[in-house]
Structure formats: C-alpha cells, structure tokens
Amino acid sequence: MMATPVKRLILLTVLRDVYPMVIRLVDVPVCLEVSEFDEIFHAVLAWDSGIGYWFKIHGQEFNSFQRKTRSKKLRDFRLHRLETFLYTPGAMDQWEWELRVVDLQEGAIGDEVPVCVEGRGATPPQYCGGATGYRLMLKRPEMGEKMFQPAQVYWKLSVTSWRWKPLGSICVRAN
Questions:
Q1: pLDDT score, position 3
Q2: Where exactly are the structural domains of the chain?
Q3: Cα–Cα distance, 142 to 37 (Å, whole number)
Q4: What is the pLDDT of residue 107?
Q5: CA distance 40 to 26
Q6: Distances from the Cα of 11 to the Cαs of 26, 30, 49, 168, in angstroms?
Q7: Which CATH number fits domain 7-127: 3.20.20.70, 3.40.50.700, 3.40.50.720, 3.10.290.30?
Q8: How do residues 114-159 score in pLDDT, each as one tens digit?
Q9: Rounded CA gap, 34 and 77, in Å?
Q10: What is the mean pLDDT of residues 33-42?
C-alpha cells in the first residue's frame, strides 16, 4: 500500500487588539485535530494549556465544550488560500487571534510535525487579563504616578446610602 503525502496549512496568526503586534507563522498538517492544534498553539506561545478553545470558521462557532467539535480535524473545514478565521485559546482571558491561510502545500510522506516557521513580537503573559489587561500593563510604566493606585479608587454605591472612602489599602464604611 502506497503512503500518500500529507497536505499542510501555512497559517499567519495575528493577535488582535494588541500593540506591538504579535505575529506567528505556523505550518501544520491538515490531519491535525482541532484540540491538538490548540495544544500546539499554546506550546508555540509558551503558555499553559488553557481552559477550552473557540473557533469561528465559515460563520459557525466550534468550541471545546461541544462533543462534536472535539474530534474535528482541520481538513474537515475545507479551508482555502487567503481565508481567515478567528481562534480564541482559553475561555478565561479572551485572547483573540486572527488566522489567515497563507498557503496549502503538499508535505512529505509521514511529515506530520507542526512547525512555527517564524514570528514577530513578544508573546504577552497568558494570565494578564487578555488584550485589555495587557494594554493596561504596558501603559502603567508610561503613566507612572498619573495612574490610580488601588487604594485611591473611590466607590460610591448608588444602591445604598453607604459611602466608601479609601483608608490605606482597605476601604471602610463612612457613616
């Protein structure tokens, strides 16, 4: 029986809503399951395995919480050149990646190893609050004393007549 070459996807991945840009070019076999792609992408970013994943391809959503999605392979989506789709690794921080199919290539026989071909931009910390938290993290050193310290935040609860005032690192009720 003759072995057939494995088709490969060349994907350009761009982290959305983050500056400086974070870009990775990955080369993966189309026989890869979606759950395996999630694990590999976490490894490329040097992140821990996340809690779930979410894809939006051809206007449909596929996530790790649906049983029918877990066994899907990349080839099942019939992706074509220059097609884009969204990928969110992990349900907690909502990092959203835009993936674009740069090319479909014939691989060598038995060549099923995914590869990160190149990249640009440092990977942000995984658990910093997603794109919003990362922007605030980068902004804090620039702003310095202009940004509020946690103890300076003053809340006035509109539901009750309580007023809260900062006292050191804790808030106390003002009568």
A1: 65
A2: 7-127, 144-174
A3: 36
A4: 81
A5: 10
A6: 5, 11, 20, 50
A7: 3.10.290.30
A8: 999 999 998 888 888 888 888 888 877 665 555 555 444 444 333 3
A9: 10
A10: 89
